[in-house]
Specification:
The chain has 246 residues and is α+β, with helices and mostly antiparallel strands. It is built from 8 helices and 8 strands. The protein folds into 2 domains: 152 residues, 2-Layer Sandwich (Gyrase A, domain 2); 58 residues. It is 39% helix and 19% strand. The structure holds flavin-adenine dinucleotide.
């Protein structure tokens, strides 16, 4: 993985740690890296103002008011004239949830063509949790330290056995596309995701919410930081609007 000079991103609360420029490390082996972006608040303003044959070269206070109005009244299309291209490394179970978001483009690492990664997600002890309550209204409570350690050990043992089997089958001549069947949901994958701000806000709204699974939530928080950095007025209007995408 390339290394980048450290930077500080301002503002948004997140549990992910910012380690390198344009890269936010998430979970034990994952990250969200903003590969490129064509994104500014001005693109929203000009997308809306073309209705009146107007164009602005710089934002002013009236433009900020316009963005707040568009967000509040759910005029969503002006928020589509931009693009964020993310490079993501996440466990398969997170990617599977992520790929349900149809408005955007994905390309994923192929375990048919390349050797699977030997990195697997092992939750930190404080992230090993119990699930109490009914579907739609679960609460997640920490487990006793002994159970947390046991869970981590058992996950690691399954990962080791799975990867050992995978390697052995591949070495014996079994196609990677079949050998990969032994890979558990905790295995890491990588993908590119290109998305506009409207769809990104929908993703953040759903996946950075308390109801989302903790792991994808951390990824959504990382994506949100990049939104806040590149489109600060749009992001604060989104937050002021109850984190509902327009
Ligand atoms: C907490 C949580 C629990 C979930 N649990 C489950 C589950 O148990 N099982 C399950 O299958 N999924 C589950 N999902 C996934 C969920 O149903 C959505 O598939 C996912 O969140 C993507 O949301 P979206 O459709 O808004 O996003 P996108 O697919 O990116 O779509 C964005 C928006 O475009 C519009 N749109 C896109 N496609 C259509 C269409 N075909 N018709 C009309 N409008 C469209 C909608 O306005 C949509 O909100 C869960 C999601 C969350 C956040």
């Amino acid at each position: 993985m390339p290394t980048y000079a450290p930077v500080t991103l301002a503002g948004v609360a997140t549990m992910a740690e910012v380690l390198t420029e344009n890269t936010i490390h998430v979970l034990d082996h994952g990250f969200v890296r903003l590969d490129d972006a064509m994104a500014s608040d001005l693109s929203v303003v000009n997308g809306a103002r073309v209705s009146f044959a107007r164009h602005k070269a710089e934002m002013d206070e009236s433009d900020e008011g316009l963005i707040r109005f568009l967000m509040r009244d759910r005029h969503g299309t002006p928020f589509e004239h931009n693009a964020f291209r993310f490079h993501v490394r996440a466990p398969l179970f997170v990617a599977r949830e992520w790929f349900r978001h149809r408005v955007g483009s994905f390309n994923e690492f192929s375990m048919r063509y390349a050797k699977a990664s030997d990195e697997f997600y092992v939750p930190e002890p404080e992230d090993v949790r119990s699930q109490v309550g009914k579907p739609g209204a679960y609460s997640f409570e920490p487990v006793e330290p002994e159970l947390a350690e046991q869970t981590r050990d058992e996950l690691q043992a399954v990962y080791d056995a799975a990867y050992e089997t995978y390697n052995r089958l591949v070495e014996q001549g079994v196609a990677r596309e079949l050998a990969r069947l032994v890979m558990p949901m905790g295995a890491y994958t990588e993908f590119y995701w290109t998305v506009n701000a409207r769809s990104l806000m929908n993703f953040v709204s759903l996946r950075a919410a308390e109801t989302a699974q903790r792991e994808i939530r951390r990824y959504a928080e990382a994506c949100e930081r990049f939104l806040a950095e590149r489109m600060p007025v749009t992001h604060s209007a989104f937050v002021a609007n109850g984190r509902v995408a327009p």
